[in-house]
Design a protein that fits this description.
This protein is an alpha+beta fold. The chain has 11 helices and 10 strands. Helix 1 packs antiparallel against helix 2, helix 1 packs parallel to helix 4 and helix 2 runs antiparallel to helix 4. The model has no long low-confidence stretch (mean pLDDT 88).
Length: 337
């Protein structure tokens, strides 16, 4: 047994001495000092030897282990001082890229929508999320007592201060500061006292547009929205206007597109009574009372306005079934976009 230990020392020393990098040195260490090495098996078998042999062989085996460990440490230190990699590391492997985030899908779509309207000559306008009731209701032809002003629909901070339920207030503030022509889009976060479910949330994002000039007609509104919807949903998108009521426009229209999930046949998305059409926007010609509230002459100026919920546009285009998914922060959902 002593002779075998002497031979092991020679073989192990030679293997370690010829190692030219940390990986080769590590392989030599595992071979001669690892748990499955011959030296380790000899040390584990000492219990089966006679007392005299156990003393002699045990002392030689332990001396050999200590000698090989010192040799391994010396060679490793030399390789590291020469600039070699640490044991177990392969510097030829490519680096690990750090995970990078990306914009939320709502931000992506807001940027996309703004780009489309910028191409039509619309500029960006912004306003405060905490509003007064004049800019949010009075100037938009919603006098005291109007149902939209009820606390069941609106978050009031004080009797006349509230969280804006739409970005139409930005249109009022812009018209108060600028004379026509005015061509703006107003994106932003809005708040409504809604019961939360798959299609309603107490906060969401809205984009509204306003164009005021001489001789602006309903055909201008239709052409503008037709261009936008074809850009956003695809060139085959079919659009139609259905009569609707909004206090700040007259006439008012509900803007619908033919359901692209079923081709207009009727499905669970567009509903069995819709005739295969999906509501996407509200729009109309600006009411004369709105012009009077900001000092515009309704006999000279005409204009159109429109508004859309950004979340609804995203839900329709990407087939998102629940608006709450946008706000839960689940990365499994967000990584899809």
């Amino acid at each position: 047994m002593i002779e075998r230990l002497d031979a092991l020392e020679v073989e192990a020393a030679r293997t370690m001495d010829v190692a030219r990098d940390a990986l080769a040195l590590e392989e030599a260490r595992v071979r001669w000092l690892g748990r499955k090495s011959e030296l380790t098996q000899i040390l584990r078998g000492l219990k089966d030897l006679s007392p005299a042999e156990r003393s002699t062989v045990g002392a030689r085996a332990n001396q050999l282990r200590e000698s090989l460990e010192r040799r391994y440490d010396e060679i490793r230190a030399r390789l590291e001082s020469e600039g070699g990699p640490s044991p177990g590391r392969d510097l030829t492997l490519p680096g690990r890229a750090l995970p990078r985030g990306h914009e939320h899908i709502i931000s992506q779509v807001l940027d996309e929508v703004q780009t489309i309207f910028h191409g039509l000559g619309f500029t960006l306008a912004e306003g405060p999320e905490v509003e007064d009731d004049r800019h949010n209701f009075d100037a938009l032809n919603m006098p005291p007592g109007h149902p939209a002003r009820a606390a069941t629909d609106t978050f009031y901070l004080r009797s006349n201060i509230l969280l804006r339920p739409h970005t139409s207030s930005v249109q009022i503030r812009t018209m108060e500061k600028h004379r026509p022509p005015v061509r703006i889009i107003c994106p932003g976060r809005v708040y409504r006292n809604e019961a939360v479910d798959a299609t309603h949330y107490f906060e969401f994002h809205q984009l509204e547009g306003l164009y005021v000039d001489e001789d602006v007609a309903l055909s201008d509104l239709k052409g503008t929205l037709d261009h936008f919807l074809k850009k956003f949903f695809g060139p085959e998108t079919e659009m139609r206007f259905s009569p609707s009521y909004f206090p700040f426009v007259e006439p008012g229209a509900q803007v619908e597109i033919r359901c692209f999930f079923c081709g207009g046949k009727g499905c669970g998305v567009c509903g069995p009574l819709s005739g295969g059409w999906l509501e996407v926007l509200g729009a109309g010609m600006v009411h004369p009372n709105v012009f009077r509230a900001v000092g515009y002459d309704p006999e000279r100026w005409t204009g159109f306005a429109f508004g859309a919920g950004i979340e609804r546009l995203v839900m329709l285009r990407h087939g998102v079934p629940d608006i709450r998914l946008f706000y839960e922060g689940d990365v499994r959902f967000l990584h899809q976009f």
